[in-house]
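Per reviewer request, we include the raw input and output of the structure prediction for the construct analysed in the revised manuscript.
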Amino acid sequence: MDYPGFDLRSERPGEERGIDVKGRVGTDAIESTADEWARACNLRGRYWLSAVFDCGSARPQLFRVQDPFGQLLARAQAGVLINNGGIVRCADSG
């Protein structure tokens, strides 16, 4: 597969994850492509969004959301726009 719809594949015995990584200098909304959002829909609990906000600062913040398709409200544009507040609220605390 040339473009799997995520950035990283994590494989452990009995577990496989697709991980999409997004970064923002500030705390603006992030945009997923239509392919990424479709893959999130197909993989559901095996798809993780890792969003890094404040990349341009001394204190970037990482938020990981399992099943962003099921947990986050998104608005379609050219791709899918996901509000940063939803990511922070749904992020895995572990």
